[in-house]
C-alpha cells in the first residue's frame, strides 16, 4: 500500500469531486440534494479565481476523501480566515488518519496564508465528526447559531429595500 497523498483538486478532478460530494450528501441523509454538476465544478476549478479550493486525499490512485474550503475574514482581528465547507472521508477509510491529514494540511495552509482562524459547521447528530473535531482541539461555538437564506427568502429579501 502506497503512502497517503494530499493535493489540490484541479479541473481534471471535477468528476471525482462530484462523486465525493454525492457520497457526502448520502452520508448526511440528503442524497437527492446535490444540484452541482461535473461540468460546473470543472468550470469553477478552471477559473483564475475559483469560488472554492479543495484538497483531495488519495492512496493507490483511489480518492479517499476531500476538504472543500474558501476564504472568510475576521473583522475583529483584521485577518483572513478559512471556512471549511465540507470535510468527508469515505467510511471504509476512517480511523486511518485521512481526516487528520486533511485537517493538518488545511491548518498549515491557514498558517502559511496568515489566517486568524479555521472554521466550519457540523451537524448536531454527527457524533463521530463531533468527537473527531474535539479530539484535535476544536471548540464548539455554542453561543453562535448558523443562519442561512436560500431560494425564495433570498430573492424576497433582495427586493425588500429598493435602490434608486
Overview of the molecule:
The chain is of the alpha+beta class and 164 residues long. The chain has a single domain (5-158), classed as Gcn5-related N-acetyltransferase (GNAT) (Aminopeptidase, 3-Layer(aba) Sandwich). Helix content is 34%, strand content 24%. It has helices at 14-27, 38-46, 98-112, 127-135, 151-158, and strands at residues 5-8, 53-59, 62-74, 79-89, 117-120. A five-stranded mixed beta sheet has the order 1-2-3-4-5, with helices on both faces. Strand 4, helix 3 and strand 5 (117-120) form a beta-alpha-beta unit. Helix 1 crosses helix 2 (38-46). The N and C termini lie far apart (64 Å). The mean pLDDT is 95.
Class computed from helices, strands and strand pairing: alpha+beta
- The overall average pLDDT, rounded, is 95
From the coordinates shown, what is the CATH architecture? 3-Layer(aba) Sandwich
* CATH homologous superfamily grouping: Gcn5-related N-acetyltransferase (GNAT)
The largest β sheet comes out as: 5 strands, mixed
Specify the number of helices. Answer: 5
Radius of gyration equals: 17 Å
Query: What is the count of structural domains?
Result: 1
Features:
34% helix, 5 strands, 5 helices, single chain, Aminopeptidase, 164 residues, alpha+beta
Task: Lay out the secondary structure.
Layout: E1 5-8, H1 14-27, H2 38-46, E2 53-59, E3 62-74, E4 79-89, H3 98-112, E5 117-120, H4 127-135, H5 151-158
Parallel strand pairs: 4-5
Antiparallel strand pairs: 1-2, 2-3, 3-4
Helix pairs in contact: 1-2
